[in-house]
């Protein structure tokens, strides 16, 4: 009888804590499809569900191979269709882009420091475009620089304003963050997220992010903002903490086609989180730092070319120091979870790249140095 009782309890726990079932809940709100996801993934038939990550390659900033390349700091990166990795170093005094093969071997560096053709001063982003060019944003020089995969200069585009973050789309449009200069006399600084044409002229506003204007409020937020952007599968994915865990999906023409809504458990901003954040400020600035009661529902996100979306959360992962990664299939259903120790740099646009069935991300080693990690996505 006791054995049967425990079996009943186990079955009940499985029913409560297991997968949601195979019927995806959807509703229509204001003419837009909303995909409803719970705390557990759906049990989707005939879908290869991501189950785990299997480590393949590490590019370690402490390794002899990397040190010989002249690369000392990893700020952000991009990955091409063959798995080659392009690491951007913002503050380099020589080259700013370092190319590594898919197995982590240094190949070459390019994008020298300067203001001449093919040179960079303060690059903030590197992205592989749909036509396989390497696009680098250089707001200090107010230009976009396009290289081929061997580092040869293709062309430069002069910008009429410093634009730190932009994502090219396959139809020639761009998603641009912060094209307009925010009003510095207002209490809150508003940074628009816009769809722009190939000449970077605005087509429409997709979203916006607000933050305290430090000059007026004398307040500095101590946690990273919950604002995510990813492009893949012909879609633009935008997450904004003001909507909690709800990701808006636009097509490349800027039409809202879907909302992905997920139940989540808000996590408190712990004393340990506050201590780590305050450690980077001096005593005067510390008095101005404030913390929200809870963390945002996500840290960053990435989309694969097939339309799968990977959302890195603040939830604890499978091992100490790791974060849970919610995985959504192309129609917006919560399909599975992964786990990785993703390091997020709020000052750069790309923290995670999913390409060729691989999950690429940055993590910190025990000694505090950064590592770019490539892991194979294991499916069932």
Task: Give the helices and strands, then pairings.
Layout (H helix, E strand, L loop, with lengths): L1 H16 L7 E5 L2 E6 L12 E11 L3 H6 L6 E4 L5 E4 L6 E6 L5 E7 L12 E4 L5 E5 L4 E5 L5 E6 L6 E4 L5 E4 L10 E9 L5 E11 L1 H4 L2 E2 L5 E6 L2 E6 L5 E6 L4 E7 L8 H8 L4 H4 L2 E2 L9 E4 L5 E8 L6 E6 L5 E7 L11 E4 L2 E7 L5 E10 L1
Parallel strand pairs: 2-20, 16-21
Antiparallel strand pairs: 1-2, 3-28, 4-5, 5-6, 6-7, 8-9, 9-10, 10-11, 12-13, 13-14, 14-15, 17-18, 18-19, 19-20, 22-23, 23-24, 24-25, 26-27, 27-28
Question: What does this entry look like structurally?
Answer:
- This protein is mainly beta and 380 residues long.
- Helix content is 10%, strand content 44%.
- It has one domain (23-379): 6 Propeller (Neuraminidase).
- The protein contains 5 helices and 28 strands.
- Strands 1-2-20-19-18-17 form a 6-stranded mixed sheet, with no helix packed on it. A 4-stranded antiparallel sheet has the order 3-28-27-26, with no helix packed on it. Strands 4-5-6-7 form a 4-stranded antiparallel sheet.
- The longest helix has 16 residues, at 2-17.
Strand content: 35-45%
CATH architecture: 6 Propeller
**What structural class do the secondary elements suggest?**
mainly beta
User: What's the CATH H-level homologous superfamily?
Assistant: TolB, C-terminal domain
Give a count of the beta strands, DSSP E runs of length 2 or more.
28
**How would a crystallographer describe the biggest sheet?**
6 strands, mixed
Kindly report the spatial arrangement of strands forming the biggest sheet. 1-2-20-19-18-17
Tally of helical segments: 5
- From the alpha carbons, calculate the radius of gyration and give it in angstroms: 22 Å
Any idea how many domains?
A: 1
Distance between termini? 36 Å
Global mean pLDDT: 90
At the first level of CATH, what is the class?
Mainly Beta
Helix content: 10-25%
- The poorly predicted ranges are 1-17
CATH fold topology: Neuraminidase
Shape: globular
